[in-house]
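WARN retry 2 of 3 for item q-0093 after timeout on previous attempt; input resubmitted unchanged.
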Amino acid sequence: MDRTSSLGLRLRALRKERDLTQRELASRAGVSSNAISLIERNQISPSVATLQNLATALNVNMCYFFDEDVQTNIIHVKANERAGLESRGVTIESIGKRLLAQELEPFFISLAPGSESDRRQVIHSGHEFVYCVRGRVEYEIDSQIYVLNNGDSLLFEAELPHHWRNPTEGTAELLLILQTPDGSDETVHRHFPNYPSLTHVQ
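OK item q-0093 returned
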């Protein structure tokens, strides 16, 4: 089963577990009913912001959409085994999750030329750490733009509205680490709304 197909099936399953209609879920997530229908039928791939909003609306951890629910005390992820999603030039790969009471969730983000997180800014609890692995990225935090080049980093309070984009003609790569206070899934939900299961509720 490919990633997009898995996403559509899991979204539908979780929506039904929550006893929500497509219209009710759309209202909670701030998207159209048609978008919910298309995602569930695997006809479109949701944006990062849409995935964040869906995860928040369904009260699940976004990482659920990437792979299976397996808790452990050590996580070793091979570079060629990272699970992820791609939408509108943004590839998000989960690179570590499922520790008991985990409070840090790392992601590897690849941004195609001109791509961005979403036009809407994100606000969530905890802290956020960003490290530019390759290329150049503009991070807008509370209306101020910070330019990240190879090796540059940012650490900030994530309750400040933020947004990121690749303004260049080359690919950019980021290491993004979200703090999830008290193991709450809210942080990841807001950052990347995506995938479902009762085993990932807050």
